[in-house]
Design brief:
mainly beta
Length: about 55
């Protein structure tokens, strides 16, 4: 049986922005994620908040 080698850990940073302090009544407006220590592989998207009331 072949010996298994340990792989280095991967750290991922995630950021979510919302347009208010309370989940539910407020919508997510952007989301981003990236792998720590790498310049490639980052993801970012922005969305239009959906609101039923104003």
């Amino acid at each position: 049986m072949a010996a298994r080698t340990a792989r280095p850990g991967i750290y991922i940073s995630v950021d979510i922005e919302a347009d208010g302090p309370v989940p539910g009544p407020y919508s997510m407006i952007s989301f981003g994620a990236s792998v720590a220590g790498r310049q490639d592989g980052a993801v970012y998207t922005a969305a239009d908040p959906e609101r039923d009331t104003f």
